[in-house]
Write a structure and sequence with these properties.
With about 350 residues, the protein is α/β, with parallel strands linked by helices. The protein has 13 helices and 11 strands.
């Protein structure tokens, strides 16, 4: 078999697909010249859009998939669509024809299909959704963002390893710091599962990177590079942060247009405000990643534009180019060896 495509693209997923997907691929190709894309969707619809861009056409191979997955469709129903663009794209990763899949389609369906088709990496009990956000010290990664509402200590430890490898692979951090989100920074705070996870991390090979417990204000403060929590808490924190950013943008817009003096002040401050807008632009952080599966799965926001979708493609390319899956596999093997050594030592200590 020839070399696999770096990415399989679900061209029919998203609120404005396939147009916005094809436009986003054109932007991504400018950043990653020489890349090949396996574009999956209704060939009669997407082929003319691709053909209108000669450079993109040279980089794309189209695979026909007659069905799409509607946003309102339940995951169980999506599993029965064997020829949807989302399913065929994920099947390509499972078959080794592509190394990653990017979709802006139905989130529940994407998670369900990845679970059934791609399976978990050895040593992973549950996968996690991870996303990048801005902080006072730079970008950070947080997981889980909603794939697992309830987690035990083992899950949190695995999330920490996945987040650490992600931060090295995508954020380019040599020694990313890890923090467990808790109700306080003191060692006795939190429930049993969080305290147990902290004990395992302190005894593991990532101990030098483990900061300890962090609180909610530490997320935006940039106290750590990797924020680890369960899916319920992570999703609430994510949506709260998104709402706060939107509130700040709306308030700035109102203040800057409230009076003539304010409008004049805005004109003077516009260069600085433009830099702030670019830094906080949600399109820059578009793309949540399902970590722990045997293949890279990136979920783009369904309502994003071409630039936002291109950022999701960038994210997937970074993970593929820098060997995220192989690096995570090595970390998991080391964690299993450490666990086996502790069990052996404990057994030897029993008279």
């Amino acid at each position: 078999m020839s070399a696999p495509f770096p990415l399989a693209i679900d061209a029919m997923g998203g609120d404005k697909a396939p147009g916005i997907v094809i436009d986003g691929l054109a932007v991504a190709l400018e950043r990653h010249p020489g890349t090949r894309f396996l574009v999956v969707g209704n060939e009669a619809v997407i082929s003319p859009l691709i053909a209108a861009r000669p450079q993109l056409a040279a980089a794309c191979t189209v695979t026909h998939a007659p069905e799409g997955v509607p946003n309102e469709m339940k995951p169980t129903a999506a599993l029965r669509l064997r020829h949807s663009s989302m399913r065929v794209a994920i099947d390509a990763v499972a078959a080794g024809e592509a190394e990653a899949v990017v979709s802006a389609g139905n989130t529940g369906a994407l998670l369900a299909l990845a679970k059934i088709v791609l399976k978990s990496l050895p040593g992973i009990d549950r996968p996690a959704m991870a996303g990048i956000g801005p902080s006072a010290r730079g970008d950070f990664v947080m997981l889980d963002l909603g794939a697992n509402v309830q987690c035990d200590a083992r899950n949190l430890v695995e999330f920490a390893l996945m987040g650490e490898v992600f931060a090295r692979t995508v954020l380019g951090l040599r020694s990313p710091s890890i923090g467990l989100l808790n109700v306080g920074a003191e060692e006795l705070k939190g429930d049993e599962r969080v305290r147990q996870a902290a004990e395992v991390l302190r005894a593991s090979h990532v101990s030098p990177l483990f900061h300890g417990f962090i609180e909610g204000h530490d997320i935006a403060g940039g106290t750590v590079d990797v924020v680890v929590t369960d899916g319920f808490t992570g999703n609430v924190a994510l949506k709260t942060g998104e709402g706060t950013l939107k509130l700040v943008r709306d308030l700035l817009r109102q203040v800057c247009s409230s009076t003539i003096a304010a409008r004049l002040g805005y004109i003077l401050a516009r260069p600085a405000l433009e830099r702030l807008r670019e830094w906080l632009d949600p399109r820059r952080y578009n793309g949540a990643v399902l970590l722990g599966r045997n293949g890279v799965v990136v979920k783009s926001h369904g309502g994003t534009d071409a630039l936002g979708f291109a950022h999701a493609v960038d994210l997937a390319m970074d993970m593929v180019t820098h060997g995220f899956t192989a690096k995570l596999g090595a970390e998991l093997r080391q964690l299993r060896e450490e666990a086996a050594a502790r069990e052996s030592a404990a057994s030897a200590a029993i008279p």
